[in-house]
């Protein structure tokens, strides 16, 4: 019944259906269908919701020929090439016995799901009202997730998102909060209404508290690069530097022990198998990660061109190493080209558009994206559903901003011309006809 209702909503009001999807991105339970070494095969509520919304969209396009099925965007080529390389690598891996075909296909469908969401949103988004609506839904969802995280702090555990089991994935929450934090700050820095500024500032503070207590070192490193990107691209550098100074002073004054201990732990190794950088030994976790990278690199040499296929290798902490081992050097280059395309086009759009809201959104998106590329050094960021669904949803909005702004400007110009014509017509004086002239006109010949 629930899914039937969602289908009805998607057919009647796609905005409402997408809003439900945004909420479910973080508040969706997971159903484990199976396992491969280091990975669970899971289905989430938002997977089903996206399938229903996509089906509804296809149905609407079949009925209404005016709606496009696939829209051309600046990222289509890079996305298609990356998906094709992943598919070929997985088929090769299945043929050689490195990959279980069905499991490999399942993970490949998950990758495709992100890009399907991107195309769906790019097709649907048309105006400023929709953009503001979806951003508000993202921010409300993020506020609820942040409050959930803050409630975990007194328990002394690493903060994680809802429905992640007993252990949780603090790295995932850290990446999600970085991205939405940057979006909020990017818009805050523009000339938006004061009420919106206060709300965004409050949200940023609310997000930062649970972010610290994720104790995710990958996220700590990533937010540094995100913040530097904000400073570099924003005209309001003084505000950002002042806020940074305030944050540093606050952290030093309150000295959250868990945060300081986590950072110190990185450089507290002492066992024989610890990795050593200079005179400093890394902790067991960091050392194990680096050792696994070295072993993965050696295994990659056995299948250097197209790798072992998606899901054809055990769990590795690090997106770029995963791409290298699973899709080979060709897949890694295809992935890096996709990342470069995202950065290049979003930066070009940021410089091209003029609307304050749109400029703030692109600024935050670029900063958040830079942070995620750093986060991906030690996490599989670009295949984590709780990070990638929000990312590709907002990426679709960003890529469509030039067309949306152009249509808005054309609409305003048309409106101004119409008002100008009305003004000219109102100034033209129509001579009044006197009673004598009326009688003359009506007098029969």
Explain how this protein is built.
The protein has 16 helices and 4 strands. With 445 residues, the protein is mainly alpha-helical. It has one domain (2-418). It is globular.
Keyword list:
two-stranded antiparallel ribbon, 71% helix, 4 strands, mainly alpha, 445 residues, globular
Question: Any chance you could write out the topology, listing elements then pairs?
Answer:
Elements: H1 2-12, H2 14-24, E1 30-36, E2 39-44, H3 45-63, H4 76-96, H5 101-124, H6 128-152, H7 170-188, H8 194-212, H9 217-233, H10 237-254, H11 257-265, E3 276-277, E4 280-281, H12 284-300, H13 319-352, H14 356-375, H15 385-427, H16 435-442
Antiparallel strand pairs: 1-2, 3-4
Helix pairs in contact: 1-2, 1-3, 2-3, 2-6, 3-5, 4-5, 4-13, 5-15, 6-8, 7-8, 7-9, 7-14, 7-15, 9-14, 12-13, 13-14, 13-15, 14-15
* Regions with little confidence, pLDDT below 50 for 5+ residues: none
Percent helix among the residues? over 70%
Order of helices and strands: HHEEHHHHHHHHHEEHHHHH
Side by side, the strands of the main sheet go 1-2
**Span between termini:** 81 Å
Short structural description:
This protein has 445 residues and is mainly α.
